[in-house]
Specification:
The protein is α/β, with parallel strands linked by helices. The protein has a single domain, classed as Alpha/Beta hydrolase fold, catalytic domain (Rossmann fold), CATH 3.40.50. It has six helices and seven strands. A five-stranded parallel sheet has the order 1-3-4-6-7, covered by helices on one side. A two-stranded antiparallel sheet has the order 2-5. The longest helix is centred in the middle third of the chain and has 13 residues. The chain starts with a strand and ends in a 12-residue tail after the last strand.
Length: 172
């Protein structure tokens, strides 16, 4: 299995072990990594049976003002932005320990401005690749309802009740 990490993260697959299909023919990605996974599958000539998109970074429903404010906050104080971002990924639950990599402004811009193309998803589907999308009902990073509405046409879409961006669910 090939796994692509989320923005500023590394080795976070453990959060998704109950969802990941461990196979030589699976490509998976979390959040920003879902974009990278999609592009890998789109460009690959290798056999791929399943594309798993875990809380895909879906911001095409956000306006330009939102995206500019995100970029400005990142430029103003990168560490504060990343701390707030990671806390948001775990909201409404307590933050768990994650491993990080250095980030670049162009990566955040790619994440915010990426447009999920229906033609690309359709072409991948036509090649026989099963697309699975996993979304958390309580995701504070993306609008899971709008993402679900978009991806339902192309993917088996799992909408996980009470789950956050990391697809974690805590019961009282």
């Amino acid at each position: 299995m090939k796994f692509y990490s989320g923005f500023s993260l590394r080795d976070e697959q453990e959060f998704f072990k109950e969802y990941l299909k461990v196979s030589s023919y699976t490509v998976a990605g979390f959040s920003y990594g879902a974009i990278k996974a999609l592009l890998h599958v789109r460009d690959s000539k290798q056999r791929i049976d399943t594309l798993q998109l875990l809380s895909p970074a879906f911001f095409q429903d956000k306006d330009e003002k939102f995206k500019r404010l995100q970029m400005m906050a990142y430029k103003r104080n990168k560490q504060k932005y990343l701390d707030t971002f990671i806390n948001g990924c775990f909201s409404p639950y307590s933050k768990s320990k994650t491993l990080h990599v250095n980030t670049r402004e162009d990566e955040l811009k790619e994440l915010l401005y990426f447009i999920w193309q229906k033609d690309t998803l359709h072409e991948i589907q036509e090649r026989g690749v099963k697309i699975e999308v996993y979304l958390g009902e309580k995701d504070a990073i993306i609008d899971a309802d709008k993402a679900k509405e978009f991806f339902l046409e192309f993917a088996t879409t799992y909408y996980i009740k009470d789950a956050n961006h990391f697809l974690e669910v805590y019961s009282n």
